[in-house]
């Protein structure tokens, strides 16, 4: 999704950074806004190395509204802290199963022409309605 650094004009993408003790940031993973305060991502992105233990939320930061990862001056980008990290209770780092997590942001993200949540399917939508379309 983020391989060529350029994202679409409307960004549902979130970029997750690990904040080092020195204060510098390192891009780590991608995610997607699901509400103004929640981002869904892979569990392996937000656990302590070689464990199933969530990282300290203070060591994470989410950038939303980003269109070009190589441009720190993107006017639509906003950096938001993380209040909580919740990983799937059956996440298994060795088997790579249930590799999903939800981050609760420290403040709501304002939606705009450039930042919006992902569109989730409604309850009555069936897989057959989407398959091959």
UniProtKB/TrEMBL annotation:
<protein>
    <submittedName>
        <fullName>Proclotting enzyme</fullName>
    </submittedName>
</protein>
<dbReference type="InterPro" id="IPR009003">
    <property type="entry name" value="Peptidase_S1_PA"/>
</dbReference>
<dbReference type="InterPro" id="IPR001254">
    <property type="entry name" value="Trypsin_dom"/>
</dbReference>
<dbReference type="InterPro" id="IPR043504">
    <property type="entry name" value="Peptidase_S1_PA_chymotrypsin"/>
</dbReference>
<keyword id="KW-0325">Glycoprotein</keyword>
<dbReference type="InterPro" id="IPR018114">
    <property type="entry name" value="TRYPSIN_HIS"/>
</dbReference>
<dbReference type="InterPro" id="IPR001314">
    <property type="entry name" value="Peptidase_S1A"/>
</dbReference>
<keyword id="KW-1015">Disulfide bond</keyword>
<feature type="domain" description="Peptidase S1">
    <location>
        <begin position="1"/>
        <end position="133"/>
    </location>
</feature>
<keyword id="KW-0732">Signal</keyword>
<dbReference type="GO" id="GO:0006508">
    <property type="term" value="P:proteolysis"/>
</dbReference>
<dbReference type="GO" id="GO:0004252">
    <property type="term" value="F:serine-type endopeptidase activity"/>
</dbReference>
<dbReference type="Pfam" id="PF00089">
    <property type="entry name" value="Trypsin"/>
</dbReference>
<comment type="similarity">
    <text>Belongs to the peptidase S1 family. CLIP subfamily.</text>
</comment>
């Amino acid at each position: 999704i983020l391989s060529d650094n350029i994202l679409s004009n409307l960004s549902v993408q979130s970029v997750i950074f690990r904040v080092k003790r020195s204060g510098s940031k390192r891009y780590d993973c991608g995610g997607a806004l699901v509400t103004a305060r929640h981002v869904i991502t892979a569990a392996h992105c937000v656990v302590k190395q070689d464990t199933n233990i969530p990282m300290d939320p203070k060591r994470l930061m989410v950038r939303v509204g980003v269109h070009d990862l190589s441009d720190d001056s993107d006017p639509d980008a906003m950096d938001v802290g993380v209040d909580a990290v919740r990983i799937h209770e059956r996440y298994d780092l060795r088997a790579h199963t249930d590799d999903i997590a939800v981050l609760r942001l420290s403040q709501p993200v304002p939606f705009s022409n450039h930042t919006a949540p992902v569109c989730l399917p409604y309850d009555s939508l069936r897989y057959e309605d989407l398959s091959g379309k």
